[in-house]
């Protein structure tokens, strides 16, 4: 009997991720991805695979700002749609975002209803920091983006303003700092 596993992607998953994402990109549903970019960003990806190694879905989380990350490259194989795998992958990415201390997660998508079912709501794209749009440079729809922006707030109490500048002493490199490894549960 075959089973499914959800896990962080590995380099060997790249050709299958590229094939799945680019299939939907050819249909105009999402942005295409070059294999070279996937190899570079493979640590952002979560995949669902069958026990015999067939890719059933993928999705990625990219941090873009001090409080914001994007869910991107979310794709479920045609034969596995409607089985809850899209929700499962987004849940996994949200868990990762929470562990990173992120306050908000967004997506640019045509799948508004799907994301609304997962706790996202539609927002004005103009509200995102400029950094979000740097990644759109290579998009053919750069000047006529018709994707909908959806946002899920993870921590409503997190401050919205940008963090202060880096401490001057640190930048000058004059101060020698001792590296102390603090266990995660103590540091939180
Ligand atoms: C959109 C997509 C990721 C959804 O994945 P999925 O595994 O089929 O979705 P799930 O089974 O987890 O569905 C979760 C919920 O969303 C609903 N849903 C899923 N796709 C939907 C759609 N296109 N329109 C409306 N509702 C949808 C499901 O009915 C389910 O609702 P329920 O909880 O009330 O039963 C998948 O259809 C896909 O890969 N599409 C092509 C690529 C794409 O558009 N990716 C998004 C890029 S941002």
Explain what this protein looks like in three dimensions.
The protein has 188 residues and is of the alpha+beta class. The chain has one domain: Aminopeptidase (3-Layer(aba) Sandwich), CATH 3.40.630.30. Helix content is 29%, strand content 23%. It has a 7-stranded mixed β-sheet, with helices on both faces. Strand 4, helix 3 and strand 5 form a beta-alpha-beta unit. The longest helix is centred in the middle third of the chain and has 16 residues. It is globular. The chain starts with a strand and ends with a helix. The model has no long low-confidence stretch (mean pLDDT 88). Bound molecules: coenzyme A.
Question: How do you describe this structure in short?
Answer:
The protein has 7 helices and 7 strands.
Q: How many helices does DSSP assign?
A: 7
Count of domain modules? 1
Biggest sheet, in brief?
7 strands, mixed
Fraction in beta strands: 15-25%
In this entry the ligands are: coenzyme A
Structural class computed from helices and strand pairing: alpha+beta
What is the CATH architecture annotation? 3-Layer(aba) Sandwich
Name of the top-level CATH class:
Alpha Beta
Coarse morphology? globular
What is the number of strand segments? 7
Distance between the termini: 42 Å
* CATH topology description: Aminopeptidase
What integer is the average pLDDT? Answer: 88
CATH superfamily heading: Gcn5-related N-acetyltransferase (GNAT)
Strand order of the largest sheet: 1-2-3-4-5-7-6
Helix content: 25-40%
């Amino acid at each position: 009997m075959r089973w499914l596993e959800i896990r962080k992607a590995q380099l060997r998953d790249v050709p299958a991720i590229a094939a799945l994402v680019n299939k939907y990109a050819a249909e105009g549903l999402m942005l295409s991805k070059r294999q070279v970019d996937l190899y570079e960003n493979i640590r952002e990806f979560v995949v669902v695979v069958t026990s015999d190694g067939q890719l059933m879905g993928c999705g990625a989380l990219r941090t873009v700002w001090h409080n914001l990350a994007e869910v991107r490259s979310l794709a479920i194989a045609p034969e596995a749609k409607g089985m809850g795998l899209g929700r499962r992958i987004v849940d996994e990415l949200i868990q990762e975002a929470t562990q990173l201390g992120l306050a908000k997660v967004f997506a640019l998508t045509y799948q508004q209803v799907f994301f609304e079912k997962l706790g996202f709501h539609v927002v004005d794209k103009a509200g995102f920091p400029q950094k979000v749009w740097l990644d759109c440079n290579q998009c053919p729809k750069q000047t006529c983006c018709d994707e909908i922006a959806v946002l899920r707030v993870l921590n409503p109490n997190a401050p919205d303003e940008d963090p202060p500048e880096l401490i001057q002493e640190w930048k000058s490199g004059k101060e020698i700092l001792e590296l102390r490894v603090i266990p995660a549960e103590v540091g939180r």
